[in-house]
Design a protein that fits this description.
Strand content: over 45%
Oligomer: single chain
Order of helices and strands: EEEEEEEEEEE
Number of helices: 0
Structural class: mainly beta
Shape: globular
Number of strands: 11
Largest sheet: 6 strands, antiparallel
Length: about 160
């Protein structure tokens, strides 16, 4: 693998969120029509859902100076633009302060899976933890049900 330390691929085929920390309601495993296999992570924004964040986080083992790259497949339905997705790589210090963050935001989804790449992040000195965050941000009260699906999450550390 020549300097590549793959953190692995999450296609959610286990039928649960093994290795991920779900924060907020709305997250479940969707058991059909995945981009890779038969299951994907689904975050549903219910009609009437107030502004807020629903997140799914994974700790990544990456030392200072390493490069973290994230690619994933994303699909969704957000007719009234009440929600959007932000995929982030975040490095924090021992006190939990953010040292560096890169992100990719998607506001208008495709109902079919499309590959999304997050800008790469070079892990800075004094990093205690590095996280990959899949976040659904509800920006205004949802007028109808919206959904976002995540699959084939590939995290690479080089």
């Amino acid at each position: 693998m020549d300097g590549l330390f793959a953190q692995g691929k999450s296609s959610f085929e286990t039928g649960d969120f093994t290795g991920w920390n779900v924060q907020g309601k709305g997250w479940t495993i969707y058991s059909r029509d995945a981009s890779d296999g038969s299951k994907s992570a689904l975050c549903t924004v219910s009609k009437g859902e107030p502004a807020g964040v629903m997140a799914c986080a994974k700790v990544v083992k990456a030392q200072p100076g390493f490069v973290v790259k994230v690619d994933l497949d994303l699909a969704g339905k957000a007719r009234h633009n009440s929600s959007r997705v932000k995929i982030s790589v975040i490095c924090v210090d021992a006190g939990g302060g953010i040292l560096q963050e890169v992100e990719k935001t998607v506001a208008v989804p495709s109902s079919d899976f499309h590959r999304i790449s997050v800008p790469e992040l070079i892990v800075p000195a004094k990093t205690a933890e590095t996280y990959v965050m899949l976040m659904v941000e509800v920006t205004k009260t949802a007028k109808s049900t919206e959904w976002w699906r995540f699959d084939n999450v590939l995290i690479r550390v080089e």
